[in-house]
Automatic annotation (TrEMBL):
Source organism per UniProt: Streptomyces macrosporus
Stretches the record annotates as Disordered: 1-21
Name this polypeptide is given: Uncharacterized protein
Length: 66
């Protein structure tokens, strides 16, 4: 039997980080509002992939708002 691995120090305990907030639709933008609506329906249907996709698209969307 081999000797167990010994580490020189205790493991590092990382602080808890809140998940990032979801992007909010830009007021007056039909594209942002539609993405938020799709995201809401996807969340109601427990479709987390679509929720994430909508968040990514909405976070990238403001390039047309600047």
């Amino acid at each position: 039997m081999t000797e167990p691995i010994r580490y020189p120090q205790e493991p590092v305990e990382l602080p808890y980080q809140e998940p990032p907030l979801e992007p909010a639709p830009v007021e007056g933008c039909a594209g942002c509002r539609e993405l938020a609506n799709v995201r809401d329906r996807a969340r109601a249907g427990n479709d987390q992939t679509t929720v994430t996709d909508c968040n990514v698209l909405m976070a990238r969307h403001p390039e047309g708002h600047g």
